[in-house]
């Protein structure tokens, strides 16, 4: 399900509590390159990233091409109707998937961030049974993201002035 081949359009299997329950998603494809670049260079996203400088189209092209062909990486694009609303990226290393995500600035504050992360975890649990845990790193002043991982049942495993690290060990059911 998560290989570079056979990427397919999917409808979210179950709306997460707290969102409006109207997001659908599919895996990213080459045509999403500029959409993802615009989200990457959103000022709030840069501020909340650990490498905070702007990303050039050339750097993004190389990065995105590698991610698309990496069987340990999946990027999900979420939609509200036909409108792109955000993305979640899962990068698997051994049995742990690292989560990165962002919501389009027009769609923030509506609960979509939480819904997207919940749906992405459900997608990974279905498609990659070898995944045993999910990991996320958040800057300490990124209050919405801290709230999202806390409310989805992640455990804060470490924290300093640069980084709060969360882990969710494979849940029996979809976190909501
Ligand atoms: C972080 C981000 C994904 C959150 O997505 P979102 O859809 O706007 O967040 P939600 O609407 O689901 O809100 C999450 C929680 O934060 C709260 N919140 C939202 N904005 C807030 C703010 N400015 N101050 C305090 N709390 C806030 C919400 O009330 C909600 O809390 P609740 O679940 O207890 O009600 C989004 O702001 C974003 O894309 N930011 C830039 C990229 C980024 O930071 N990515 C995450 C890197 S770890």
What does this protein structure show overall?
- By secondary structure, the chain is an alpha+beta fold.
- The chain has one domain (9-169): Aminopeptidase, CATH 3.40.630.30.
- It is built from five helices and eight strands.
- It has an eight-stranded mixed sheet, with helices on both faces.
- The longest helix has 16 residues, at 112-127.
- The protein is globular and about 40 Å long.
- The model is unreliable at 1-19 (pLDDT under 50).
- The chain binds coenzyme A (COA).
- Residues 18, 44-45, 48, 101-103, 108-114, 138, 142-145, 147-148, 151 line the site of coenzyme A (COA).
- Coenzyme A is lined by residues 18, 44-45, 48, 101-103, 108-114, 138, 142-145, 147-148, 151.
Structural class of the helix and strand makeup? alpha+beta
CATH architecture: 3-Layer(aba) Sandwich
N-C termini distance: 23 Å
Question: CATH homologous superfamily, by name?
Answer: Gcn5-related N-acetyltransferase (GNAT)
Bound molecules: coenzyme A
How many discrete structural domains?
1
Q: What oligomeric state do the depicted chains represent?
A: single chain
Radius of gyration: 15 Å
CATH level 1 class label: Alpha Beta
**How does the overall form come out from the CA principal axes?**
globular
- Tally of contiguous helical segments: 5
Number of strand elements: 8
Keywords summarizing the entry:
176 residues; alpha+beta; Aminopeptidase; 8 strands; disordered N terminus; binds coenzyme A
């Amino acid at each position: 399900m998560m290989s570079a081949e056979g990427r397919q359009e999917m409808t979210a299997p179950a709306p997460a509590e707290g969102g409006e329950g109207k997001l659908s998603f599919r895996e990213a494809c080459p045509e999403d390159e500029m959409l993802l670049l615009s989200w990457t260079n959103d000022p709030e996203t840069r501020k909340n990233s650990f490498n905070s400088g702007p990303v050039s189209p050339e750097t993004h092209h190389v990065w995105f091409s590698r991610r698309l062909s990496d069987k340990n990486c999946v990027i999900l694009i979420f939609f509200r109707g036909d409108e792109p609303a955000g993305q979640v990226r899962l990068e698997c290393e051994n049995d742990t998937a690292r989560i990165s995500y962002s919501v389009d600035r027009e769609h923030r504050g509506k609960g979509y961030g939480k819904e997207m992360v919940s749906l992405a975890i459900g997608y990974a649990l279905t498609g990659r049974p070898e995944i045993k845990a999910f990991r996320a790193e958040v800057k300490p002043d990124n209050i919405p993201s801290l709230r999202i991982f806390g409310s989805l049942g992640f455990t804060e495993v470490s924290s300093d002035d640069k980084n709060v690290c969360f882990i969710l060990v494979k849940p029996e059911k979809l976190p909501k």
